[in-house]
Prior knowledge:
Strand order of the largest sheet: 1-4-5
GO biological process, one term: signal peptide processing
Organism: Bombyx mandarina (Wild silk moth)
Oligomer: single chain
Radius of gyration: 22 Å
Subcellular location: Mitochondrion inner membrane
Transmembrane segments: 134-151, 158-180, 213-232, 238-255, 267-293, 299-316
Amino acid sequence: MFSRTLNVSANICKPPLFNQVWLPPKNGRLIRNSFHNSKRGSRQALKPDPLENLHIETGPLHAKGLVKPLIFTVGVSAVSLLGCVIWEYENLRVHASSLLRRPGTWLTAQQKKSKSEPGPLKKWWNSLRDNEKVFYPILAANLLVFGAWRIRALQPFMVKYFCSNPSGGAVCLPMVLSTFSHYSPLHLAANMYVLYSFMPAAVSSMGKEQFTAMYLSAGVISSFASFLYKVMLNQPGLSLGASGAIMSVLSYVCMQYPDTKLSIIFLPMYTFAAGSAIKVIMGIDLAGVVLGWKFFDHAAHLGGAIFGIIWCQWGYSHVWGNRDKFLQYYHHFRKSDPGR
């Protein structure tokens, strides 16, 4: 049983601070209000809005428009799973080869000693834990996209490809790219803090390869859940943020370790069980879906959380646990490839 207390941000009990933002595409002013709500009354809010004149594609929503996103969701999830299974196989193979490798002669041993020392970057990378080796690339991708939002010339491109929009010209690719997209610094910081807080438990349980497969699948699945909700209610809008995927990590950890005591960073004296916490958070998102709250994409959060629970209860053993047949096929394919 995972026994240590996880110090999570104050946003855990009040998920709006790390929620995926939903931007109704009526005009650029609404985008500004959504992105900069935390800065109202500040000097920065008085600056000209760089997104004010951007054209946002919108149009009627139809159920048949969900077919292509559904196929894309299944395809991305399958590729993520198979790719991470291969990644795990190659890591195990390299590890086994290093254990079997022995210096056969004195000359071989001397040559090994004479090799140059690894550079500081490689030393730093080798010193990281498994969960950090997954977290920092995710953080780097999010920071890169965050920086791209600051370049005004790129903003039409960012709105088209890094905001999921069921009525946009680009529908499928943004379902993945929007998972790494944040415009608000607070949104980015809160999401990355929550992800970093729960990754050690998740990676410890699943391993870095399975965690990566689940995270990428959860990102596109939560985007599809958002599409489904918007089409059902005929309410087009833009969404961006990693919180759908992060909700899957959160729900997985809370279901895997339901008795773990969580605490709020600003109120560490108050603790609560992880199993109770995820029920409250999902209840808030369910209320947002039923009552039609539009400031955050509650459908994406709920979809990510449900996927995390399904993965904990069923996917861990029945999907990832049955990868042996594919590994046998890949092993024979690898042996038959003369280039390897």
